[in-house]
Amino acid sequence: LNGSTYDGSMMTTLGGVGHNIAESIQRLREPCLFITAVGQDQPGQMIISSAATAINDNNNRAMADTTTNIRSLKQLPTPSCTVIIDAQGECRMVVGDFRANQCIDKNFVSRFETQLKQTSIVIIDANIPTETMNYVCQLCRQAKIPGLGPVVDNGGCGGVFSGIVSNPLVVPLPIDLCNDQNENGIII
C-alpha cells in the first residue's frame, strides 16, 4: 500500500456475521431473534427494514417488534466496513467502524433474558463486549442451551468461552439450528 488510487468496483450490501446468520435462519422460515445495535443512518434504516421484511415474509413472531431488539443509536453510525478484495477474490484488508457493537451491552441484552433462557440455541458474534458475552454464556450454561461462539474472532475473544459454556459449539457451521419444537434461535 503506497497511497495510490487504484481502479476497482464497489458495492454496498447488508451484512455482518450476525445479520447474515439471522437472515439465513429467517429464509428457512424459522423464528429468530436478532439482537443488535445500529446508527440512526441509512445503513441502520436498511437493517431495520430488512428485519421488518423478514417478519412480514415469514410471519416471524419472534421478531415481531424490531424496535425492541434493535438498539438505535443517535451518537454512533451503524457498524460498517470496507473490504478490499484482490483480483483472485481474496480478502486483503478490512477497514471498519464497529463502535456501535459496544452498545450491545449486558444491560441491553438482559431485556431478552426470558427469550434467552427459552431458546434452543444462541449464536454470539465476538464483536460485542466481553462482559455481554460472559453474561449470555452464563445464562446459556444455567439453562443448558447450546451456545455457538465466537462466530467472529481475531484471536482475542476465544478465551471468553473457555469454561463458561459447557461444550460450546464453535465455528465451522453447519449446525442444526432448528429443533422439533420449532423454538426460537437467538443471534447476538
UniProtKB/TrEMBL annotation:
Q: Give the UniProt keywords, A-Z.
A: Metal-binding
* Pfam families xrefs: PfkB
Q: Which GO terms describe its biological process?
A: phosphate-containing compound metabolic process
The UniProt GO MF terms for this protein read: hydrolase activity, acting on glycosyl bonds; metal ion binding; pseudouridylate synthase activity
| Residue ranges annotated for the Carbohydrate kinase PfkB domain, each copy included | 9-146
Region forming the signal peptide:
none
Q: Mind telling me which InterPro entries this protein's record contains?
A: PfkB_dom, Ribokinase-like
Could you name the domain of life of the organism this protein comes from? Eukaryota
Which Gene Ontology cellular component terms are annotated?
A: cytoplasm
Q: Which SUPFAM superfamilies match?
A: Ribokinase-like
Name the record gives this protein:
Carbohydrate kinase PfkB domain-containing protein
| Species assigned in the record | Dermatophagoides farinae (American house dust mite)
Q: State the organism's lineage.
A: Eukaryota, Metazoa, Ecdysozoa, Arthropoda, Chelicerata
